[in-house]
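[scheduler] slot 2 assigned
[scheduler] job type: sequence-to-structure, two independent chains
[scheduler] chain ordering preserved from manifest
[runner] begin chain α
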Amino acid sequence: MLICKILSLEKNNEYSNIKRITLPSVKGFVEILSGYAESFIILKEGTIELYDNSNSKKEYPIKNGAGYIKDNVLTILVNSKGKDVEFYTKK
């Protein structure tokens, strides 16, 4: 089973007992299953899909982001759909 942590500026969500996760990566869709190799994944605009044991689906729309999987824990940093992040630099 997987644990998925979705972190955004608006809120943080944690989901446990996840069977599989589908991510919208810049290279196409990536399906994460238990035992997936340690990886870093760049995400594009789309929807993160979480499936539990009964194949019930939860959807989380994003604008972009990045994911890191290690030891069956997927941590995703996202820019939620419709929200632009502004970066400020010191002068």
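[runner] end chain α
[runner] begin chain β
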Amino acid sequence: MKRRRRRFMIWEWLNVLTANNGECLYCFDQSQTMDHVIPFSDGGADELKNLLPICRSCNRKKGKKNPVVWHVAQDLCLRWHGEGSLLDGAVLHNESLRELYLHTHTEVLEALTELEEVQTEVIDERRLDWFKRSFEHLGYPSANYGVPRARAQSGERIREAKAKGYPTVDEEWPDFLKQLEAVAKLLEAPSAADETAG
């Protein structure tokens, strides 16, 4: 039986897309979609613990590869010119295949550390709770109200919450009460039209 992908709610999209400062993990452009770290087609989980922010261009290039395979392929394409032999490069700065692999291996380990750091941010309980509480009411993306629109409208609120460490309900409650009191005062205050009529 073929597995089906699940639909993600807007709060889940916002949670993933704004991780890593809202940047694609691979090229640092603005993130636009969610990447399955372990590809869904290879049995990767279709849940937040397997999703990271990425741009559409990198998502197309990466395809159904995991980050390690993709990074190695990208790196070797850039550095290996196919000249020389297994043991030595043919021209200056053209490393042997072994040297290229060892260099790439170190970079892959560094990249995996970065992926793990962003993944930790995505699944942080306090952060998850804040996003769910703040945006669950938006439901699922639709033609009328999609993720880009929600992200644009919520950007400042998300930045403020991040600066405050994604406050809990108890931490947000005093600010909410102050806002309610301010609204109540505005409603109670006589308007200029009322004063001229009286």
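[runner] end chain β
[qc] chain β: The chain has one domain: 10-166.
[scheduler] slot 2 released
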